[in-house]
């Protein structure tokens, strides 16, 4: 047995987009195409027959993972993380290169894969266990542990379609958590469930990691990544940019994201606009740093953040703007408005924008959305309100300067504080 | 970055198509890795050090990994069992559905084909003559349509977990066997009613059911793999089933087919199955020997070619489904 658990060489995965080879192509198209192909071949020897675009979701990936190493794979959406896990989990084939994996692999790209609503909790444990690769014997011997971990207790013989979503997820994760592989490949499955259970799952994952198992862990949750992983790999556009100590990799990731923001156009007929409102707001922009570079809507907790609300009022005069910061579920966490700034004055007639600066964004890591509203102060009236106008992601780096992180169950607001001890 | 990224992601997830290998002439001269363990899996109970999985692109025809299939027999069992236990949940009539379809078809056939059109029935009463055919036919058409849709309806499994993909269509031909058994009880009642005593030939019955299963599976392998890429299949199957039923001796005896054409007729595997059923249960005169031989050969050919085709298309499933 070598010390290397996973060895990946020149791995690449190409997808074709567009062109003639659309998905759900019909048999007729293929037949016509097949008939035309030899003719085309004769007329243009060597020419590409498909006017389609190649997209390398992964390219030239090389890395090794030592036995017992816990590796965090991070990167923005679309950087190839999930594709990499799918290739390593056997789900899809690479286009080039190869990977060697030594040891029994289990991959967990989703919790509750194959759960069936009509089946009871007990039945789903067995089914899901088998789908994840457990034998009947293994399922039987771990059954009681799974039930206990899931905390579903007396609902064991209830069809899971009657479960609350929390129970459903707990049960699903409980089965997955009792896999006993040597190599575990995990996609962002911790982003589910209530906070208590998330904590328990992170704990369980930690046990797995400490148990000498090799783990590949993909996540957007920098907190969890820093907690669980020793080393990391940063993917950008399907290429591995950095591989090394997890702190360095996360730093690099955060650096690459700083100064970015997001621009969202608000269409006049958006369903997110409150009923009875006049379409005044046209665009919402969010960025951190000064340059306002347009990008993916990721900001770092503690940074200065700028929010711009672009308006076209026609002849109407507006002098009031409010921005609500909402959780990803839509619950309002706090609001900032022109009425909170004693030095604010002015208004917009025609086209213009409100620019709001939040000196230090005090949010825990996670996904949030913005509610934006504009109106008049006298009479005090909202003229246009749009919910979920812009979604953004907060990365939680070393906000407190102590290395401490905020767990989801500790709340969504990151408030700095100073402490001292007084002796009696 | 943002737009490109999110569009790209959406595209990757929803609209992409894997590059299936391009069998270009130029290309084929390049050294090609063979099928050697492109997806060699792992024996659950083996020692850690023994298991090495090699992941690399495969090309062309891929062999069937029987060993691996055997290792996943539990999954096979659970999937079949899931379909069986879910089948009649939240229906009023429940398992009665297994009987309703063949029984009422039999009633309609007896009335229109047996009574009004006067189609011969090899000397047995027409109702039992057609019911004995509806039994395997109902099984076959239900198993065939199940397995043709099996991959598409298991898309969530295909994109999230690895296991030998063959398990899915394999497991999908089993649930209908339960229906078959339920409907079979009605047949026994009818035999009692018509005072038909089966001969020892009835021992062959499982073999004929197996033949129907192999045929359904063979067709299912072809169609399920095609269905992943061409959703036309979904609309083709009901039509195919109807067409196929009239090409099989469900409503008429195969003895109306001229003698010299019978073997050719038997290339429809369901002809062999149905004639076999009648011969085994009702003791009809037609010696089904040549028909059954032709049917068995055709069914095995369907199965083998279906399995090979399936394996060849398999690698694109997760990307295309």
Give the topology, please.
The complex is a heterodimer of chains A (424) and B (321).
Chain A: E1 4-17, H1 27-43, E2 53-66, E3 70-74, H2 81-88, E4 96-102, E5 105-108, H3 121-131, H4 136-150, H5 165-177, E6 183-186, H6 195-210, E7 214-218, H7 222-228, E8 231-236, E9 239-245, H8 246-257, E10 261-265, E11 281-288, E12 298-300, E13 305-318, E14 320-327, E15 332-337, E16 348-358, E17 366-376, E18 381-395
Chain B: H1 2-15, E1 17-18, E2 52-55, H2 66-71, H3 73-86, H4 97-116, H5 126-153, H6 155-160, H7 167-172, H8 175-193, H9 205-229, H10 232-247, H11 262-266, H12 269-282, H13 289-314, H14 317-320
Helix pairs in contact in B: 4-5, 4-8, 5-8, 5-9, 5-10, 5-12, 9-10, 9-12, 9-13, 12-13
Give a summary of the structure in a few sentences.
The complex is a heterodimer of chains A (424) and B (321). With 424 residues, chain A is α/β, with parallel strands linked by helices. Chain A has helices at residues 27-43, 81-88, 121-131, 136-150, 165-177, 195-210, 222-228, 246-257, and strands at residues 4-17, 53-66, 70-74, 96-102, 105-108, 183-186, 214-218, 231-236, 239-245, 261-265, 281-288, 298-300, 305-318, 320-327, 332-337, 348-358, 366-376, 381-395.
Shape call of chain B: globular
Beta-strand segment tally of chain B: 2
If you average the pLDDT of chain A, what whole number results?
82
Biggest interface and its residues per chain? Answer: A-B, 70 and 61 residues
Low-confidence region ranges of chain A = 19-24, 45-50
Query: Beta fraction of the residues of chain A?
Result: 25-35%
Helix content range of chain A: 10-25%
Terminus-to-terminus distance of chain A: 60 Å
Rg estimate of chain B, integer Å: 23 Å
**What summary fits the major beta sheet of chain B?**
none
Specify the helix fraction band of chain B: 55-70%
- The domain tally of chain B reads 1
